[in-house]
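Progress against Task 2.4 (sequence-to-structure conversion) is shown through the following example record, which the project officer requested during the mid-term review.
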Amino acid sequence: MTTERTYHHGDLRRTVLTAALDVITTEGPAALSLRDLARRAGVSHAAPAHHFKDRTGLLTVIATEGYGLLSATLAEAESLRDLGVRYVRFATVHPAHFQTMFRPELLHPDDQELLTARELTRSQLRTAVKGYGGDPTVGFMAAWSMAHGFATLLLSHNLDGPLDGRDPEETFRSLANEMLRPAENSAAGRPVVP
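Structure tokens generated for the chain above:
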């Protein structure tokens, strides 16, 4: 009875999303099943399809939500280094979103909300690297690769040994400081990596 009341009050969508995020965090996006999520929510196996149509629709909603959360996190950054730290923080606080957002084969590629949210986030990254000289496209790719690579290695526990108990955000900040130091032989004093 409680499940029906929750469903009619519009909470089923969030309940399914929350359950999906839990599954993705512990087992990865491949383990996601609408039928299993319906069972966890205590509703008929068709109920989640009413909100998401299919598994790909659910994952697309999660990715879109993730880009919105990431964009809000990045908007508060005070520098390019801080932006990278916030990117890493987002990945650790929202691991299921992070795992889903960058798996285009799991998503509806033409979903307008997804495309808009993704472009807003990429625009924030591109804007942050503009002041660092050099080719802004290369700078965008370098900065994103550094933060994304670190976050991915962190979430997959490949940095557990090298971090040896150190704070991941402070470690990333040190890495960014090292990478963004002015080149010794640069007459203009521009950073090595934008």
